Amino acid sequence: MSISKLFMACSLALASLTLAAGAHAEGDVPAKKTVKKAAAKSTKKAAKPAEPKAPNEEEDEPVITDSAVTDFDCELGNKISIYQNAGDDQHIALRWKKRLHRLTRVGTTTGANRFENKMYGLIWIGIPAKGMLLDSKQNRQLANECRNAEQQKPVTTATSEPTSAKISIQ
């Protein structure tokens, strides 16, 4: 039994030396103060949740004064508003879930209007018949079948009346 007690005492001594060497490497800061500082920092973080930091152009919501607004009604009762300045066709402001997002035009080969906000993962695709809002981060649709007032009008086709005139070739 004395060997097991000796082994236990050596293990405890080695463990305490390891802890002391770790504290010495951190600049002779006692372990208790380190724990208190970490606890204080964690309570500050818990009290104030960190929001994702936006790039410079998106720190504030886009300015929509003097913008033309187009409201879209989507399936499942979703609503989207798009604000566009007459002099800037490269950007739009899109209101989704009570928040304005700035989206930048991305070129397409199909002629569709595609705007993206890479930070939030939003993609707006507008075609003549409808628009849709996608979330590229979660790979899902947020809103589909979005139509403005013009797109909701019934489509009418020009009907040609049959002509009863006979054409004679001579």
UniProtKB/TrEMBL annotation:
Polar residues bias (residue ranges): 149-170
Organism: Duganella alba
Signal peptide: 1-25
Disordered: annotated span: 28-64, 147-170
Origin: domain of life: Bacteria
Protein name: Lysozyme inhibitor
Compositional bias annotation for Basic residues: 33-47
Coiled coil start-end: none
Keywords in alphabetical order: Signal
